Amino acid sequence: MVAAGPTVEVPIPNVPLIHRPGSSEAPATLARPPIAVRKRVLVVDDEPPVLKLLVRILAVDNYEIQSTDSGVEAARLLDLPGFSGVDLLVTDLMMPQMNGRELAAVVRGRYPSVRVLYVTGFADTLFEGVNELGDGESFIEKPFGAEGLLEGARLLMFGHIADGVTPSDKRDSAGEFADDRLRAKFVRFLKRLRFA
After folding, report:
1. Among 6, 16, 101, 158, which lies 20 to 30 A Cα-Cα from 63?
2. What does the DSSP 8-state code read for residue 64?
3. pTM of the full predicted structure?
């Protein structure tokens, strides 16, 4: 008899990856046009399923993607002779040996203009020792949706989601906590109250 363990449900985003000719379903269309300038993305996460998911989602937007499962290995990639560079670092914040912040510092040492998107389930730890994220840095909190990741990467890289489309200011809406910047300010505010 095989013992049944706990059941874990993992939401998989509905992201069109491959359209096979002759299939009955047409690929879903993106709400925004594909990026015109192909950017180089380095994706780092120590959890293989999350790493595969990040790469799978970002591949939809036609980025040139390299990925690895540790900060130490990512730092080694930078030294390879054929490494093409990096425009956007998408990294887990909490990783063994070298965390996301340490990795970002190493990558910025080689590529000062790199943008950094932290992926974290612990947004409050993002602000330990700092009051706010630096220029060219943002975060997305786990669990995240495919659209949120794609839009976050575009906003960080280009300052907008699609050409000619200015993102709306969500702070005026009832869903104001959907805005990551406001959430980050709220977390800092709560931290100040706790340590006041």
Report:
1. 101
2. E
3. 0.66
AA letter at 85 = G
Task: Tell me the pLDDT of the chain (196 aa) as tens digits.
Answer: 445 555 545 444 454 444 444 544 444 445 667 677 788 999 999 999 999 999 999 988 878 999 999 989 999 999 898 888 899 999 988 888 988 889 999 999 999 999 999 988 877 776 676 667 778 888 888 888 888 899 889 888 887 766 555 555 555 555 544 456 666 666 676 666 665 4
CA distances from 93 to 102, 133, 138 (A): 9, 13, 11
Going from the N-terminus, what domains does the chain have, and what CATH number goes with each?
A: 40-161+175-195 (3.40.50.2300)
CB 99 within 8 A of CB 93: yes
Q: Is the dihedral of CA 156, 113, 37, 83 positive or negative?
A: negative
Q: What is the dihedral of CA 41, 44, 48, 52, to 10 degrees?
A: -10
- The span from the CA of 190 to the CA of 33, in Å, is 38
Rounded Cα distance, 50 and 68, in Å: 11
